[in-house]
Write a structure and sequence with these properties.
With about 80 residues, the chain is α+β, with helices and mostly antiparallel strands. It contains 4 helices and 3 strands. The longest helix has 12 residues. It is globular, with a radius of gyration of 12 Å. The termini are far apart.
Length: about 80
């Protein structure tokens, strides 16, 4: 089964990184306040980045790496 790393932009212009099997479904959970604690107080605006992985472990490793990047480095990743 495929896993996806995703980055959301929030209404207050912060970035949230997570992993999911179905990014659109997870985004809806974030919008409804049932996603992550962070996105309850920082409402998600849109999905700005996704990347597919063959395993949860690979996705988690990339999530860990991205969460330690600066905002500028994350923006560079998003912009490609």
């Amino acid at each position: 089964m495929k896993y996806y790393l995703y980055i959301l932009q929030t209404v207050d212009n912060t970035l949230y990184c997570g992993i999911a099997r179905d990014v659109e479904k997870r985004f809806i959970q974030h919008l409804s306040g049932k996603g992550a604690k962070y996105t309850r107080s920082h409402k998600p605006l849109k999905i700005v980045y996704t990347k597919e992985f063959d395993s949860r472990s690979e996705a988690q490793k990339e999530e860990y790496r991205i969460k330690h990047l600066s905002k500028k480095e994350k923006m560079n990743l998003i912009e490609g």
